[in-house]
UniProtKB/TrEMBL annotation:
Domain KxDL, residue spans: 53-134
Organism: Basidiobolus meristosporus CBS 931.73
An example Gene Ontology biological process: lysosome localization
Annotated GO CC locations: BORC complex
Protein name, as recorded: KxDL domain-containing protein
Matches recorded under PANTHER family: KXDL MOTIF-CONTAINING PROTEIN 1 (PTHR13511:SF0)
UniProt family annotation: Belongs to the KXD1 family.
Pfam families: KxDL (PF10241)
Lineage: Eukaryota, Fungi, Fungi incertae sedis, Zoopagomycota, Entomophthoromycotina
Length: 147
């Protein structure tokens, strides 16, 4: 097996270039074609020419116009989203502060209510100790309540 150093890689600017006749339906043989009519075209240019033959110029223009319109719409939507995000952020900051204040208020109200119900239970217990007969009468007349 030959070593990689013995393998000759093609190199030079002419390796990827093709020679072809300018007019394939010409009546001249290869010997009669002047050197100027032979064109050297690299692979990418040849590929591009073949691709351009597949699509009409009108279709290319239409695609370019569609791309420009799409880019304009994308740009305008990006601006609209940026404006909306700024608005949303400001409203969120405002509402978040209000929500925090309301949450604190509800927490204080709950604490106050727990204190009031504790006092009511303590008063009921004390009244029940001082006036057990009256308390039993009141409890029997009223349906059971949650404490």
């Amino acid at each position: 097996m030959p070593s990689p150093s013995h393998i000759q890689e093609p190199s030079g600017p002419d390796y990827f270039q093709l020679q072809f006749k300018a007019l394939p339906d010409s009546n001249l043989s290869n010997e009669q074609v002047p050197q100027e009519e032979l064109q050297k075209v690299d692979g990418s240019e040849k590929f591009l020419e073949r691709c351009m033959e597949l699509v009409s110029p009108e279709m290319v223009d239409m695609m370019l116009q569609f791309q420009q319109e799409t880019a304009q719409v994308l740009h305008s939507r990006t601006e609209e989203l940026a404006i909306f995000n700024e608005f949303s952020q400001s409203k969120y900051q405002e509402l978040q502060g209000r929500f925090q204040k309301h949450t604190e208020l509800l927490t204080h109200l709950r604490t106050d209510l727990e204190h009031v119900f504790r006092r009511i239970r303590a008063l009921k217990s004390r009244i029940g100790q001082l006036y057990p007969e009256e308390m039993a009468t009141v409890i029997s007349e009223r349906p059971s309540e949650e404490e």
